[in-house]
């Protein structure tokens, strides 16, 4: 088992979908990654920042899941990062209604001493300079650094993004972003170009169409589980990343074959996340439910063609 | 091994893609289905109609692939169906430039005596009344009737379409069409509604995102092989259908587990079809190439998670 360091927002979200709307609820990439990774019973810690308005009970809930919160700085007179969004009827697109950076604006991540030797580092979607600052604080070279990012940083901080991409092992990115970053329409060619920018592994997330893992000419495809209803897609990508890194931390094996399993676990956990608003489903998830759904993933994808 | 009866257009296509354009070349759903199914070395026959302008060499080529062309009526003083289209840069959408129905306008399909007892029937995309007429000519109830259709028939002949859908076992349809036909956005719910309309099996084609097979609460997912370049998507769906039915005819087994293999074969063959203009790639395809690519499909999708 390896220690997992997670860097990402811990935040308030207010979400509107065709199924209803919420007040300010617990959200943030770091939160979703942490909850997802915690299903593997590993030792993980989140580096983030919140305001004095952030309820202690949320931190207690994370601690109860064996997630170390000592790296979550509390700015007493500040306000927690707040995002509000509204999903369209197809649930594949959304409008951002409110973004209040608040304490995130001056976030200076500090990695706790006990996590400076983490073998796996998951850098959630944040300014690439913040992601870089975390890498620089590691006292021992991690076995695997995984980075999530988005088009916003390509538009406003491309040079910083390119610099941090050079330093990491796995990038997770969606299909449109992979096309934007590489200038290639074909995802096969996009992955090749992104490899050349640094990361040995490229994970391309395609939302309801699943995720592709690329490395050195090898490819693996994990479908998303087709669902009767997607209730709230918020956090699905982060939950995927938490499942991916949580599984790798638990198994302490970063071979391509083991990464195949990791993307399946990521996809599996993401399929739960979207069943309820915010983190609700991830908080109540049981090991038996995870196992039952993995069985569904096997039925969905495994076939038996013999090739002589 | 079962006999396979194929009904579908045999036609001329003129295609323009970002990679180039063609004059009138061999096309048509029946042609693509036949060429794809022929890779299984089965006995198949095409029911269709062409004009006096249709080159004998094309018919000879089909016969050389062991495809019976006696059901292809030749209207000496008529012209062959002609379609011309132009693909956009993303290759996922296209504009129809020309549709000349010609001999197809008065097509009255006649199933040859030797194919009236076919165990597998593949009804390519045509007016649903024509599809129905073929079913009525069968002297022995087929083991499996597969129907392909499109949104056009939902718009202009919905009642005819609903009538024929009641009589068939498998429908192949794309995701948008499944949503239109069922009125359900979720593909899981769409498949359920379409089951209730008749077919026990529903295959939803998602283009570059693969295909889903549904039956009685069971689901299977066959990805499309991610390709560096898609040269010409024309005929990919028909090639999929030909691979699906060709494999089922060869193995003479319509269990759900065997249908999983059939959709993988369909997806495998479709991945070749798009590599060249028209039927070019399918005409030159070898058994070794098919086998090598199936190995790629296995690597792409098979994983090894043990569940106690």
Topology:
The structure is a homodimer of 308-residue chains.
Chain A (H helix, E strand, L loop, with lengths): L3 E4 L3 E7 L2 E2 L3 E3 L1 H10 L5 E8 L4 H9 L2 E2 L3 E4 L6 E6 L6 E7 L19 E4 L4 H10 L6 E5 L2 H6 L1 H8 L4 E5 H8 L4 H10 L4 E5 L5 E5 L2 E5 L13 H16 L4 H18 L6 H5 L2 H15 L7
Parallel strand pairs in A: 1-5, 1-10, 2-8, 5-6, 5-7, 10-11, 11-12, 12-13
Antiparallel strand pairs in A: 2-3, 2-4, 8-9, 13-14, 14-15
Helix pairs in contact in A: 1-8, 3-5, 6-7, 8-9, 9-11
Helix content of chain A: 25-40%
**Going by CATH, what is the homologous superfamily of chain A?**
Ribokinase
Largest interface: A-B, 38 and 38 residues
Described by the principal axes of the CA atoms, the overall outline of chain A is: globular
What is the terminal separation of chain A in angstroms? Answer: 38 Å
User: Under CATH, the topology of chain A is which?
Assistant: UDP-N-acetylmuramoyl-L-alanine:D-glutamate ligase
Question: What string, H for helix and E for strand, traces the elements of chain A in order?
Answer: EEEEHEHEEEEEHEHHEHHEEEHHHH
Quaternary state of this entry equals: homodimer
Q: Pick out the low-confidence regions of chain A.
A: none
User: pLDDT average of chain A, as an integer?
Assistant: 96
Largest sheet of chain A: 10 strands, mixed
Estimate nothing, just give the exact number of structural domains of chain A.
1
């Amino acid at each position: 088992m390896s220690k997992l360091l997670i860097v990402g927002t811990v935040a308030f979200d207010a979400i509107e979908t065709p199924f209803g709307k919420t007040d300010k609820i617990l959200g943030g990439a770091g939160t979703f990654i942490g909850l997802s990774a915690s299903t593997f019973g590993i030792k993980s810690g989140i580096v983030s920042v919140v305001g004095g308005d952030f309820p202690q009970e949320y931190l207690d809930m994370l601690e109860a899941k064996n997630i170390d919160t000592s790296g979550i700085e509390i700015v007493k007179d500040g306000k927690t990062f707040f995002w509000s969004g509204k999903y369209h009827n197809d649930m594949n697109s959304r409008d951002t209604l409110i973004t209040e950076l608040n304490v995130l604006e001056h976030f200076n991540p500090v990695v706790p001493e006990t996590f400076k030797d983490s073998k796996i580092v998951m850098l959630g979607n944040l300014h690439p300079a913040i992601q870089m600052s975390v890498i620089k604080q590691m006292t021992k070279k991690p076995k695997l650094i995984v980075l999530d990012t988005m088009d916003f940083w390509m538009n406003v901080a491309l040079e910083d993004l390119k610099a941090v991409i050079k330093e990491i092992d796995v990038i997770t990115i969606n299909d449109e972003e992979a096309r934007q970053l590489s200038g290639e329409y074909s995802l096969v060619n996009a992955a090749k170009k992104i490899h050349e920018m640094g990361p040995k592994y490229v994970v391309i997330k395609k939302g309801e169409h699943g995720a592709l893992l690329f490395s050195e000419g090898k490819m693996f495809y994990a479908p998303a589980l087709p669902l009767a209803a997607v209730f709230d897609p918020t956090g699905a990508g982060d939950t995927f990343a938490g499942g991916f890194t949580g599984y790798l931390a638990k198994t302490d094996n970063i071979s391509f074959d083991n990464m195949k399993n990791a993307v399946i676990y990521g996809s599996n956990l993401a399929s739960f996340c979207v069943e309820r608003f915010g983190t609700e489903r991830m908080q109540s998830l049981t090991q038996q439910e995870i196992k039952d759904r993995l069985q569904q993933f096997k039925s969905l994808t495994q076939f038996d063609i013999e090739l002589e």
